[in-house]
Amino acid sequence: MQLYHNIENDLVIDVNEIHHRQQVIQQLKKHFRLFGYREIHTSPFEAYDLYVQMNGTVNHEEMIKTIDNTGKALVLRPDITIPLTQQIASHNTSITEDLRYFYVLDVFRQKQGTEAQRYNTQAGIEYFGNPSPEADAEVVFLAIDTLKQMRFKNLKMELGHAGFFARLIDAMQLKEEDLQLLKQYIQAKNIPEIEQFLKRTSLNDDIQEVIMALPFLYGEPQVVLDRASELPLPKDAVPALDSLRAIYDNLKAYGVEKHVVIDLSLINHMDYYSDMIFQGFIENIGKPIVMGGRYDSLAAQFDSNIPASGFAYDLDTLVSHAAITSTETTQDVDVKIMYDGEKQQESVQLATKLRKSDFETVLYPKEHPLVQTPKAHETVYVTASGVKCIDASGEETRYTNAETYEATKEKE
Amino acid sequence: MEPLTLALAKGRTAVDSLAMLENAGITFPNFHKDSRKLVFYSADQKIKMLYVKALDVTTYVEEGAADIGIVGRDNILEAGADVYELLDLQLGKCKFVVASMKDIDLTKRTSLKVASKYPVVAKQFFHKQGIQATTIKLNGSVELAPMIDMADCIVDIVETGTTIKENGLQIITDVEDISTRVVVNKASFATKTAEIQSFINSMKNSLEA
Questions:
Q1: Which residues of B touch A286 (CB under 8 A)?
Q2: What span, in angstroms and rounded, lies between the C-alpha atoms of A382 and B26?
């Protein structure tokens, strides 16, 4: 049989890497639980139809399609927020209950025309049922606080508002093609091209002034929001600023305001965001490490009225930049038992007891070792004349039998 | 305070860019363009400059190895880099054009073979026109491709258009204007806002002076 080299599998057998990854995941999960979130799981397969009906969410061409043996068209889970919201909406037309969920799951998307990464792992939370600025602030705080717990330094959370830009779009009435171009320029803070763009199109002076100011509406929240208020904004864009002000005031109570900046030119390509949106950066990583926001209008696509907000970390970026928390070398086991042939039964019993007390234990017959045995913190020789234990520093201790040795371990 | 890292594109606009930096009070005393060194520090030690190939500048910036880059818009577009593009230095002005041996009516074509040093730019342009373009990546003397019938047309940079004319080609249409830009890593913009904005402002003043 011809074996193909699977590049994507290379990481899987690097036990140190996997250990580190699991520790990061445990840290995240623990912290999410501390805020009352509970873990959920969604199916890796989803109906292709669900996503075909929804525009402005996942780019259809980026999804990985598959067909099951009944001929039904499926996609590999391209998003978690959408199926979760659909699930909740299918049971409720509106909710008053406060629901908090978190997940660590793979999401499958492939950039067009590339063979690059077909999936990445997302770790995120979704908070349903609470539309208040206090809830928004807590979600943003959790996104910051989890990173702080993981000892990331110099982190910045950029806070913007999807509704703010949506109202500007309404006021401009651009052709779809022009709109995409303008969005691209605004996301790149491409001031020279925005100027050129405005020269080409015949927008009224007020909206031109607002668009031109967007790339500069970045920085200290109070200052930016005050500056934005002085612009000739469309009337219906003003509440967005009030909402951001309220969220920022709440964030001050959490004492994280030094990590928060306002960016009114922030655009998320997921159209389901309706209100505040945010993205977080850590030093020297050019792409956001976390993205999120409020998406009250998503449930409406499933004929329900459910306030919701959430965020997701790009787990792979987190893992590759998180400090290693444990110094222990993961290949080493706690105890290695080497026994004389006739002591097998006694040694098996010893191993079982040690494992019950949470010691990683391996055992081998002393004669004819077939394999190179792993390193251990303690090596225990079980022989007819007694039990000898050699610890990592080479120090030797003798015991009369397996029980007396085991008794000392129980005390640890 | 850690120095800001600046990636500067080698090549035709390097000297002018450095002159503009000098106007803004940023000088690199140890720099001369034939030096084999790759890293230079400004006189006040506040800026560390990486002197790299133009094609690589956006990579350094996108990866966060450099906070700021000075590079032509041609390279930014071809790399499709996800960076902030904050300032037009108005240097090295030229444009992307489509050129060919004969006058092709783009509105009447549904497919085309295009030779270019910039296949991404070429493909995106024709895609917007609703034309299925097959691109051939060449690394130089792109004008040759239509002459020997290897491609229907080329997408290339022109400053004066002399090379195009000398090879018997004509410009069919303009694609996009190009000049030297200041690009910024998005995380650097967020985490070193004050330093970056002060750099941008001094460049802006130097530009207006």
A1: 61-64, 82-83, 185-188
A2: 74
